Amino acid sequence: MTGSDGDRRPAANGRPVEVCCDESGSDGENLTGGNTDVFAHASVRLPVPEAAAYVQEIRDRIRSPAEEYKANHLLREKHRAVLEWLLAPSGPIHGTAQVHLTEKAYFVVDRAVDLLLGDGTQAVALYRRGRELFGDEAWREFLLAANQLLRVRNFGEPEAPVDAFFRTVGALRPVAAPGEVGQTLGRIAAARSRADSYRAALPTLIPVLNPLLPAIVATAAYWSAGGAAVRIVHDRQNMLTPERIAWIEERARLAGIRLTGVQLVVSREDPRVQLADFLAGIARKIASDELNGRGDPELTALLRPYVDPASVWGDQASWTLLGPGCAAPSANINSAV
Description:
With 337 residues, the chain is α/β, with parallel strands linked by helices. 49% of the residues lie in helices and 10% in strands. It contains 15 helices and five strands. Helix 11 links the parallel strand 4 and strand 5. The radius of gyration is 20 Å and the shape is globular. The N terminus and C terminus are likely disordered.
């Protein structure tokens, strides 16, 4: 069945939709000082034989001696034609794949505002105007302090991240305009007790700053649109413990998503997961380039049909080019799942 957005998500027919997933850009909880500024979680819905044939065709086209192919093989300029073939409307995964993007710096601001105010809707305005109002250095300090406040693993005294964060907020408040951003910072400055309570009982099972878990819930929501039940097959990794998988399944249930289960596999043993791995790495690079003002218009246009409208993205200029329908994503999509 072809949906209104051009995908081929089937209508509910009693059988779960099996989608295979992988991610790219994981830096743990270090979202503002890691190696990447975008996290991408990709999913593919294809039969195993068909996926295996596409993986083999990629190998035949690239002809690299590498035992395991990764996205960087496709991203090399000499293999541009293969990359365009993979993403093209007439290509092998168009309509059967999706990618959920997370802009890491915005994710930090969104999570911090939601924690301290109990409502993340004000994060968008703060994030979009922060650099302009405060300057690159001061804004960077705020992002780093917010990251340290939220992350589970910190060195030094337990209260040190709280002290550093509220010192940063105090320094920014006199600079903020008297409008929405200034009001938001004022409310944050008055929420020290929430920060102290959070640091006193850190959520080690479900880290606030890990984008993988909510991305999996969002992926299940995407493929279950129309009422279909969804089963997720995911690349095995340490973050996906049985307890966290149970959390994913419970969050999905509470959101009315028909997620029937999550199975972990070794990527190289499932060609569908390999295709998801390709798409995640490709999407992360294209989205990061667009975020940093060095986007490739042709590749961005090819990626756009795959991007989940529920992606967690704050930068308006890049989202206008990346987002399906050029509409802004939800201001607080993470708390919704």
